[in-house]
Design brief:
The complex is a heterodimer. By secondary structure, chain A is mostly beta strands. Chain A contains no helices and 11 strands. Classes of the chains: A mainly beta, B mainly beta. The interface between A and B is medium-sized, with 20 and 21 residues.
Chain lengths: ~110, ~110
């Protein structure tokens, strides 16, 4: 079992819709969770992090964490073509550096 | 701030040659990470340093790989001898807060 699992996609949504990206992790001791966005040919950039169960909102982005289910998600409201990218879920177990999932490719159709 | 600076951006070399990748972290960041990204394996941690000291090198594939951080503003990742399977994009990242990584633009390595 991979430490951090994501559906590779592509996830295709129409412009203006809500995009829902999901991630599961295997280490119950994981303490903090991060979402990075990577445009094609570019480096990853941090867009959100969440430490506590529940929701955390930042503009059009909402991160959701359920530690009991070992599940993290990222919702993007009012999706725009400029949101088309690969979204990487990353987990900090507290024992070593971030472990990244393989990413979900999001395509927002105009 | 200029961000994390990596060089070279692109490197094409022949199998058996030595490759040295360089990284200048963001000033004031106390952690530095080397990751490798391929289509098959995604983004993998190779090694990370905290305050210039290697903390976890369990991701370094084998003895052909070595990394150093002689001071707070410079790190190198060396592959000797290089092999075709080392072809990947190598990212350096630095951080001040745990998990909040700032990545360089990457070094794309092709080993023929």
């Amino acid at each position: 079992q991979k430490e951090v699992e994501q559906n590779s996609g592509p996830l295709s949504v129409p412009e203006g819709a809500i995009a829902s990206l999901n991630c599961t992790y295997s280490d119950r001791g994981s303490q903090s969770f991060f979402w990075y966005r990577q445009y094609s040919g570019k480096s990853p950039e941090l867009i959100m992090f969440i430490y506590s169960n529940g929701d955390k909102e930042d503009g059009r982005f909402t991160a959701q964490l359920n530690k009991a289910s070992q599940y993290v998600s990222l919702l993007i409201r009012d999706s725009q073509p400029s949101d088309s990218a690969t979204y990487l879920c990353a987990v900090d177990t507290g024992r070593r550096a971030l472990t990244f999932g393989s990413g979900t490719r999001l395509q927002v159709q105009p | 701030d200029a961000g994390v600076i990596q060089s070279p951006r692109h490197e094409v070399t022949e199998m058996g040659q030595e490759v040295t990748l360089r990284c200048k972290p963001i000033s004031g960041h106390n952690s530095l990470f080397w990751y490798r990204q391929t289509m098959m394996r995604g983004l993998e941690l190779l090694i990370y340093f905290n305050n210039n000291v290697p903390i976890d090198d369990s991701g370094m594939p084998e003895d052909r790989f070595s990394a150093k951080m002689p001071n707070a503003s410079f790190s190198t990742l060396k592959i000797q001898p290089s092999e075709p399977r080392d072809s990947a994009v190598y990212f350096c990242a630095s951080s001040f807060s745990p998990g909040e990584l700032f990545f360089g633009e990457g070094s794309r390595l092709t080993v023929l």
